Structure prediction request, 325 residues.
Amino acid sequence: MAIDRKQLEALCGSTLDETTFEGLGERIQGKVRDSYLDPERRPGQRTIVVSDRVSCFDRVVGTIPLKGQVLNQMAAFWFRETGSWLRHHLIDVPDPSVSIVKECKTLPVEFVMRGYLTGSTSTSIWTAYERGEREYCGHSLPDGLQRHEKLSEPLLTPTTKADFGDHDELTSRAALIESGAISEALYDEAHAIAQRLFAAGTRHAEKQGLILVDTKYEIGLDEDGQVVVIDEIHTPDSSRYWRIDGYEDALSRGESPPAIDKEYVRLWLGEQGYKGEGTPPALPIEVRVTAAERYIAAFEQVSGRPFIADLEPPEPRIKRNLAIP
Prediction:
């Protein structure tokens, strides 16, 4: 990693938190990504600025230096890796933290693929299993499984897609179709894409010494009604990764396998007693820097490429790269 802790500590004072680029059009704020629409300047397109905000328990809990650059570049890596067979929304990456994408209609479902019985949130598959539940998002689970164990096959466990500030809710294929949120044919097409993407991600991760534990995909429809993968693919925000070389030993000891994702921040918050309700505790610089190191390490190990950070203050850099007046 070309950037050291001292540099990361200094960058904690200039993270990209709020974005207010008036020259990009109408702003739509998300937990981490802010989208801009300008039908005159970029018809049929959307500008996505990936902030340094970090979201845990469906709440924004602070910022991590360089996080937006890592997420944007890793998403671009995966879109390009899968571009020969996958319809996706990426058009261009004019700035380390910005993507230009096709405008799509987002399906009201987050497609969560899970390969292992794990998780620490109140809605995770492990939490439900530990409570004695054996039906999860429409899937039957056998007795006798242990925490962090590999499932017999990857499961699609969908959630509703909440508005900014609200919680996503667990659901199932049957419930979504019955409610009219999505048609049976469209759900099954999206499911097939999620399965293929998760299988591709799993194979790639194994070559890099990693386990792709679980992930979420967002899927939309383009102007022709074609199913398109949007948002991000297999980033440290959307995915959980474990190191292969530490997995079996951790499993035998009943410990959490060594991870390279934002679970570190989530676990720290849990240790402070925060589970998503009320005001989160402020993230100390030490936690923010360690999280940044983990994000950067995730990019480098997953992609097999060095992470080249742009240390220029983000707002003037973005304005210049996007020619914002």
Q: What stands out?
A: The domain at 5-321 is CATH 3.30.470.20 (D-amino Acid Aminotransferase; Chain A, domain 1).
